[in-house]
UniProtKB/TrEMBL annotation:
PROSITE patterns: FE2OG_OXY (PS51471). Its cofactor is L-ascorbate. Gene3D superfamilies: q2cbj1_9rhob like domain. This is Proline hydroxylase. It comes from the Bacteria. Residues 105-206 form the Fe2OG dioxygenase domain. GO terms for biological process: cellular response to hypoxia.
Length: 218
């Protein structure tokens, strides 16, 4: 075993469980080491090597209101699918978290959708809510970061605001970190960054399928 492998193994033990009580009390929670280092690295390398055509320009709004407005967001996304083994591993794990949230918080979360996001240097995502009260089936947002190294000077922080516009959290997008928050409560934004920034953003949803039509996703 090389020293590098030993380091990876050692780091692999340092994962943290999500603090469900804190999530219930404050509406959001940040976990520093949600996944083992080796798994983060695998996802990071996978995202980095995806060809251009594997990504699409991210849009805003849903269904009829769907537009790609690069004044608002400039990231590129790729929806995860169960067909791809690495993507499926992430989906499976987030489904286990869904079951835990339902068990412990009685949230009645029905499913989970998520996409990889790539913010090239200079990209941002202006202040927004991920869901509007009573109008969306997105209940909980999860953001998981993949870059192994990230510093303040790199920008690209996630800023989460309180109901009076005050800054609640400024989050460095570092590998292993998971942020979970109520989708229709917390206004947030991604500041302009100077480096390629990779993450997986997802939403736990209630069942909003009507007449056999599955709710379209943005
Ligand atoms: O990447 C982040 O830090 C947040 C992304 C986000 O707000 C979104 O995709 O809705
Ligand atoms: Fe968002």
């Amino acid at each position: 075993m090389t020293q590098h492998d030993a380091q990876l193994e050692a780091d692999d033990f340092a994962t943290e469980a999500i603090d469900i009580d804190r999530l219930a009390a404050q509406g959001y929670v940040i976990v520093s080491n949600f996944l083992p280092r080796s798994q983060c690295l695998e996802l990071f390398q996978y995202a980095q090597q995806l060809p251009q055509q594997a990504w699409q320009q991210a849009g805003i709004g849903r269904a009829d209101n769907y537009t790609t407005n690069t004044e608002v967001r400039q990231d590129k996304i790729r929806w995860l699918s169960a067909q791809q083994p690495l993507e499926n591993a992430y989906l499976t794990m987030m489904d286990q978290l869904r079951a835990q949230l339902n068990r412990e918080l009685f949230m009645g979360l029905f499913d989970y959708e998520c996409h990889l996001a790539h913010y090239p240097p200079g990209a941002f995502y202006r202040k927004h809510l991920d869901a509007f009260k009573g109008r969306s089936n997105r209940i909980l947002t999860t953001v998981f970061y993949l870059n192994p190294e990230w510093h303040d000077a790199d920008g690209g922080q996630l800023v989460i605001y309180g109901d009076e516009g005050q800054v609640l959290e400024t989050v460095l997008p570092e590998a292993g970190k998971l942020v979970v928050f109520l989708s229709d409560v917390f206004i947030h934004e991604v500041l302009k960054g100077t480096r390629d920034r990779f993450s997986i953003t997802g939403w736990y949803r209630l069942n909003a399928s009507i007449g056999g039509l599955v709710d379209p996703t943005s």
